[in-house]
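Project channel, design review

CF: Before we commit to the Lygus lineolaris constructs, I'd like one complete example in the thread so the newer folks can see what an input/output pair looks like. Taking endo-polygalacturonase.
RD: sounds good, go ahead.
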Amino acid sequence: MMAGFVRVGALCLLFTVVSGFDVWNLDQLEQAKKTGQKLITVKDLHVPAGKTLDFQGLNGTTIEFAGRVTFGYQEWRGPLIIIKGARYTVKGLPGHLIDGEGHRWWDTLGGNGGKKKPGFIYLHLEDSYVKDLKFKNAPAHGFAVNACRNLHIENVDIDNADGHTKGGHNTDGFDVAHCQNVKITGCRVNNQDDCLALSSGKNVVFTNNVCIGGHGIAVIGGYDGDNVEDILIKDCKVIKNNIGVRVKTMLNGKGLVKGVTFDNIQLQDISETGIVVIGNYLNSGPRGQPTRGCPIQNLQMTNIYGNVLKNGTKHLVWVADDASNWTWNSKIQGGDRLRPCQGIPKGVNVVCGK
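CF: and here is what came back for endo-polygalacturonase:
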């Protein structure tokens, strides 16, 4: 860091130039931490197998990614990258790529068996901004956004397209839990699981995002008694997923899902179901009758439009009798298969079978 002067008219202004610290290996990253660097540029770095690219303890730092970042192969849980702290700016420079080379782990089983697969990136941030990042081929889950406060994620590209033919599974885009005041905007996810899986938190916004090839956008209630409140999912496109949007609560789960809004969501070529709202969810698949204990309240499905393929279903609602205060306005085409519904609040019109 150095200081200099600029003369403007009769005034001399003192300015500060922050010089960057380039990181090519993990030893240099440790040196950057010890010397309190505030601008770190990661350049063409290879992380050894079984090691995490660890950006903890760097409050107030800007982290830039340049070139190609890669990781050695090992069966372990990871994560490959962790960023934890406050007042971070994390961004990608033009031409960079963070490449998980997930095909080395993919075996069609994801987290349900086979090889141990590391998560890609874990964020635990406050008052921070993450933007302009490009990720490719996550071994398993992509972004774990956990216990974050006042975080904005913008223009992130998660490209797992290779997993469609090479055995990718459980390659979630964004897994959000225990967060407050988080925005995810302008992102693109091509994957083999949920584009967004939001399981707890308050004041979370997911807008102007594109989801391709996966399992749609999901809000999940009933995990460990946690609540999901005041969620806005708006102006998104869900393309060639098996499900468009869904709210699912755990079988025998406890908690509350309140104030979830889906607004202006375009569905394109959904193969199974356009909108799903269920209260009998298990990781192995929905099962049996829905249970009380995690009511879905103040749910708004507004202007959900597009198409479901011919053998699919427009709507599936299967909840207990404790749901209340819903608004439903969908204009989904196709999906000729009608399935029975249960638990729809009085006065709400949802097209279902008998």
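RD: helpful, thanks. DSSP finds two helices and 31 strands in the chain.
CF: The longest strand covers residues 256-270.
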